[in-house]
């Protein structure tokens, strides 16, 4: 695979990253980007080539951050980050940036769940019991996710549940996060764009900002890359392509073929930096 981008802005981002990698930040989503999509969220694991790619690339960059809707500690486990060599520059921003794990310390920071989430969780469970018993609930700290991938009619159940689940989130002042056959009700005040911006500020800027994602929850990170470009920080939006979501590919500078393509792209970047 040749390292290139489809847009002039993406090519400028790539050139800036290659010229000054030690001040570059690369953000990566987990589900659908580092990990193939599977029916049962509990069975998701990073693609076998993902961790070796991170180990090759992270020592060469300023920071690599896994920015995910999963709890930080769970993402660490599912990627296999704990104790792996070469990851000193890796951070995990979990729960859309509410939680954090740093390889350098091995510690997780997670604020307490807002009380509104417990009430919303109970209402969502009651809604499913009444109207969609074949949908699945995933409980997370500060969030509840309704999955319809294993329902008899996944798209139909998703469409039917979308408004009622959104209404629960709104009634409790929580965020509503639709994704790939998932509807999340979660603590407000965080998103992947703010998470990326926080990292950039903490590091005192970047030579280049990259984000790799596949789903609607990744769009705020693409927005942040666009904002930083306008402010003079070159950037690249990379889409982990799928047949389920079109919005990210439409906005991306680079589209690769799912998690296998992401791992190959990261390896290619590491090889170009190592030359
Ligand atoms: O920010 P992410 O790392 O992309 O997490 C977003 C949500 O992804 C998970 O659901 C998705 O992956 C599942 C496993 O492959 C799949 O079954 C489901 O259909 C997808 O929507 C996860 O379960 C959620 O908690 C995450 O918030």
UniProtKB/TrEMBL annotation:
The record's EC number reads 3.1.3.12
Cofactor(s), by name? Mg(2+)
Any single GO molecular-function term of the entry would be: metal ion binding
What keywords is this UniProt entry annotated with? Answer: Hydrolase, Magnesium, Metal-binding
Keyword presence, Flavoprotein: no
Pathway-wise, it operates in: Glycan biosynthesis; trehalose biosynthesis
Q: What is this protein called?
A: Trehalose 6-phosphate phosphatase
